[in-house]
Amino acid sequence: MQTQGDQDVVWRDLASLIESLPADDSDRYHLAVKVLVHDLRQNISIIHGSEALLRRSIPDTEENIELLDTIRVANQRAIELISGLARHFDRERDLPPKSPATDG
């Protein structure tokens, strides 16, 4: 299993590779990664909410608690993976501030 540091290196290398592409291609891939991250986070949020609802509504048997704990740990791991990926594709931090809109 890869460590978080190993994955961080892979995400950094992938971001560098994409940055080396022509600007239009680089922009397209950055947008695709941002959409992927957004969609994955949305699904992870649904899993998190469902786990919390189940935890409150099902009997506290040892088996149920173990299964819900497994879901929670896996969900947290998915959040860490997605957050690591997102950090390397957050181009907005590198962009100059937008100029204020002017009224005509």
Walk me through this protein's architecture.
There is one protein chain. The protein is mainly α and 104 residues long. The chain has a domain at 24-91. It is built from three helices and no strands. Helix 1 packs parallel to helix 3 and helix 2 (23-57) runs antiparallel to helix 3 (62-88). The longest helix has 35 residues, at 23-57. The protein is elongated, with a radius of gyration of 19 Å.
Q: What is the general shape?
A: elongated
Strand content: under 5%
Question: Class by helix and strand content?
Answer: mainly alpha
Low-confidence stretches: none
Which characteristics define this entry?
single chain, elongated, 3 helices, 104 residues, mainly alpha
Describe the structure concisely for a colleague.
This protein has three helices and no strands.
Please specify the SSE layout and strand pairing.
Layout: H1 4-19, H2 23-57, H3 62-88
Helix pairs in contact: 1-3, 2-3
